[in-house]
Amino acid sequence: MNMNMNMNGLFAHTLTDLIRGIRQNKKNEQGYIAKEIADIRLELRRNDPDLKAQAIAKLTYLQMMGYDMSWASFHVVEVMSSPKFLYKGIGYLGAVQSFNEETDVLMLTTNLIKKDLASSNASEIGIAINGLSHILTPDLARDLCADLVSMLNHSRPIVRKKVLLVLYKVFLKYPEGLRLSFSRMKDRLEDPDPSVVSAAVNVICELARRNPKNYLSLAPQLFKLLTTSSNNWMLIKIIKLFAALTPYEPRLTKKLLPPITTLIQTTPAMSLLYECIHTVIAGGMLATTGSGSNAESANNLAATCVTKLRTFLEDPDQNLKYIGLLALTKILPTHPHLVAEHKDIILKCIDDPDISIRMRALDLIVGMANKKNLTEIVKRLISHLLPANDSEPSSVNNNGSALTALMDPAYRADIIRRIVFICSQNSYANVMNFEWYLAVLSDLTNVAGVNVGTMLMQQFMDVGVRVKSVRSYTVQLMMRLLADTRLTEPDSPENANSMVLLAAAWLTGEYCSLLESPENALELLSQKSTAKLDPAIQATYLQSMLKIFAYWMNSLQYSWNEESRQSLVETVDLLREGVTEMFSRSPDLEVQERASNVSIILDIIAEHAPRNQLKIENSISFAPTMPKPPSILGSLYPLFFNQELNPVAPKAQKKVPVPEGLDLDSWIHEPIPEPEPESSDDDDFLNEKGSPGYGWSGEGAEAGKSKKKSKKSRDQDDPKENTEAKAKRKAERRERQKHDPYYIGGSSSPKSQKKGQEDLDVDAIPIVQLSMDGFEKAIVIGKKSKSKKSKRRERSRSPPVVPVEFATEEMPEDAMLSASDDEGKKSAGAYPEASARGILDQDTSALHSVDLSIPVGEDEQLPRAKPYMKPEEVRQYEDELAQRRRVDALQANKEKKGSKKSKSSKKDSAVAEGEGKKKKSSKKSKTKDEPLVAIETPVVAKSPSPEPPKVVEPVVEEPAKTKTKKESTKTATKVKKTTATKKAPKAPVIVAFPERSNIDLTLNENVAVTYDIALAPSSASSPIVPGNEPANDPVVAINFRVHNRNLTQSTSSVRIVLADSFDIRLGGSHAGQESVTISPSIEPQGKAELSLDLLILGRIRYELRIMGTLFYEINGHEESLEFNFGVPPSTLMLAIPRLTGADFSKILTEQLELFSATGSATVQLSTGTTGQDEQFWDAVEKITKEVTHTHVVEVVDGAASFFGQSWQGYQVAGLIKVRKGGEKTNGEEKEVDSTGRSKTIEVEMKCTDQTFVEGLAREITHFEAY
What we know:
Layout: H1 2-10, H2 15-24, H3 29-45, H4 49-64, H5 73-80, H6 85-98, H7 109-117, H8 122-135, H9 138-150, H10 157-173, H11 176-187, H12 194-207, H13 219-228, H14 232-245, H15 251-266, H16 270-282, H17 293-314, H18 318-331, H19 336-340, H20 343-349, H21 355-368, H22 374-383, H23 400-406, H24 409-428, H25 434-447, H26 453-466, H27 471-482, H28 485-488, H29 500-510, H30 518-525, H31 535-556, H32 562-583, H33 589-608, E1 617-618, E2 624-625, H34 637-641, H35 652-655, H36 684-687, H37 703-717, H38 723-738, H39 750-759, H40 767-774, H41 788-794, H42 871-897, H43 900-913, H44 915-921, H45 926-936, H46 965-980, E3 996-1003, E4 1007-1015, H47 1017-1020, E5 1035-1044, E6 1051-1058, E7 1064-1067, E8 1076-1082, E9 1087-1096, E10 1105-1114, E11 1117-1126, H48 1141-1150, E12 1157-1164, H49 1172-1187, E13 1191-1196, E14 1199-1205, E15 1211-1218, E16 1224-1225, E17 1228-1229, E18 1240-1247, H50 1250-1262
Antiparallel strand pairs: 1-2, 3-4, 4-5, 5-9, 6-8, 6-10, 7-9, 10-11, 12-18, 13-14, 14-15, 15-18, 16-17
């Protein structure tokens, strides 16, 4: 035998053979790997450590291919404990690959790792530390923390360095250890070995990422390292840590300035240079709030940083270029003039093929735009929107990927938004020539390539209303847009910027006095292509048409003649026809209404307009005079042009005084009553909406404060108002809000809401930028632009710069200017950056609660690991603990009963005597309800006699068969009579359970395997007395049947190999064997059987599985078939004498405390043709006999109680009942039959062992044959 094992080990496949075999068996890789895994299982069963290490190495490789190796975790621990360094490394590698926090055998590794950490071989210590860092659990971290901290004084620097690094992982799992060992770790900052110091800095920096304030005490030591160390990577870590510490200690800024400045000026390392600049920015060292030397030094440092960052932009490395732009973006808010000096290199970055670099460069350009460079920046940005043959030659046109990115609709829309933003920010503070800006907007309309018409429309209207000096040019430009067929007749309306026509129509109508030819404008507004435009544009066309017509008709009365009359009649007829044909039948309601109004007005004018030729009259002076113009000519003009339209000031809304007697808290219309969740007390913030006028850029827009201030002023104006009246009105308003379907309530209190309004800094919100984003619609590409020459002809020359005259911003009457009018004027800064947690970041939330400022007490020490216990000792300890609990429960039960024992026994006997009579006499008897009352607290205890139950001559019941409805009714009646009878049977009836046989296990094209499972006779004949501990383990008998499905070939060498398990072991004649032979050979279509006795170790549970492999040979090739099946807890149930109702009641009454374990299950009855009563009793029989191996004690209408006992002495009592029709469980109503009765039954159980009763409940739930 030994020689055979040695030969097997000699010729076993190595890892190299495994890899070679996988490559050679590509067509049948799964089969080859399955065979190798079976061989690995056999190799792990042998005692050869070399073979086991080789098997674990192969299994680790297969695990990396996706195959599970968790079943071999115990063997991994065995290889980890090998004295050979090579095998130990293989074991730790297998643990790293397969172990997790749920691995059971991790509890066995504590002493093993402690032993390896104490090794004199530094390599073994290194392997143990590396493996520990991957398999750490909270328990391992707690038990090994003290050992690791003590190793910080190890003589080998490599060990100290590795211990420091693994302590970071330990603190994540065991945060309490950080405070207890922080002083020891702090000492490593002064370690003589630089690698140990670097490791300590790394760990401290990682710990300080989430809670930097905890590590302020390390500032002196870190500063010393900053000024003395030459390790660039360590300096980067230290500088990063100082950047996080400076917000908590402002004095650090002045201290760090000299060494960091020296590093910026002298270091050639780009990484260190960037971290220094980043620390300077984050630490506020560039702030120039002071005066004198401090401000001058800050400016000099900022200039040095910007100059150094220019070298980043000039470097061909894209990463350096990106971080250089990022750093410049952070310097821009404090020193925009320094960044603007390097405008040339920043503009070159816009042509970079990398989209991320271009976007960062655009961020910079937006921030550094001013009056001097605005024109150049806009010109450069527009060049990116032109086609390649029209733009200036640059590197971007020679790069295919960059050109593709430039044509991206999202990128083009972003460029246009930035152009509009930099020109319109701060109320157009940077625009010196508004005619130039209007020309730019007009060009963007044609070259955008995406639909940004709404944004451009808003800009046209805003500039036209605000800037008086360019209104004439604006009107002329709008006329050109109205005549542009690319806008009025686009090939695809959704791809054109036709919304600018709305601004064109509105401006020409509002300032029609500046039109050179109003008749031409009316003709453009009434052309047939207008019917294809957006309804909003059509509505504006109608309104502007009426305004222009009113102005033109009013001007006719100053030059009234025959030509004017004819022109009036022709124009009126033209407009009437156009309005009727194009607008009156529009599907849009707004257009229909406006068209109807315009049509009626034109009809009235047509009715009063003179249709006949004018007659020239002679006056007294004999000079010919024209007749007086009709009064209808001037009737429309006053309706539109009595007052000039001016922009509304941004602060106008909050300056409006509240009229006396106006209650803003009262409802205008009472809401419709409707139930609604309770809302907040104060709805001021939710009901208030700002409605700014054109060009509102957000300067000083503090809409959130206006309501509050108005309420304060109202309170001051009305000091006589009664407080009780206010409270009453507020309560009424809250009551109305409860029934308001349109009111959105908040969860915060009124005080917190008001405080949030006061703290809200509305001025800090980039309102203009956000409003531009809101205007964006679907991004599409427009039509191709024309040639360069034609574009130059169409685009007018830039007009000369004229003095800018802004329109007066209107304020409400009686508005008072205040010092707060200039609030909120802030320069544009960099775009905010969102911080997100990376997928590789460690969860350090547990370390936040650790306060390192609290000194460690003398009694505070790191915990030591508990002594190791073998698995057998653990099981023995758990069983002893369970026994002590049961004995304590019995003792407590005896003490509680005391004097009540005699009374309860008399009461039970009385109940037993009257049981039969009450069942016969009345349907509402106590006996009918008694089982229900008893099973609501199901209690089943040990039998009245402490001795094991005596086996008497059993009266065996026939196995259950399919019954008819009549037979089922008779059976139920018979059971009722049996349980209700007063006299006990002569011999106790022992229920025989049906065998679990011929259960399908597994099969393939060659063989099929079935099995039987039952409690072995040796265990069934020697059950445990309830309350006593078992002297041995239960034995389960399993009978395997192997059927050869092949019609022609025989199978040989049929054997079974069971997997190793802590819970199951071979017993009987096969004890200690690794494999069991079923048959040397099985003929075609033949069968072979094998009976095995399995010892169940420890406690049986529902998840207890038996795993193994069936090996056989066919056609000279060995094949395998894996199997896996469970051992139901009911397998250990005993066939015990049937209890009477009196005995059952007595057990429930006297031994209630023993049954603390509970379990329940729900069974859905099948929908068949049989009646519900028959279905219920069939289900009761299956649950008791086939599933739980118990017996029925008592039955009533729709309910039955049952009782059973297991080999371990666990006793089970339960109640099976029908759920009432329409009863809801978890909010869902269960199915009922035509009679309204439920088809669902419930099973409630109580037992003396929680694990056992949970297993029975799951068996009931998963049983499929109800």
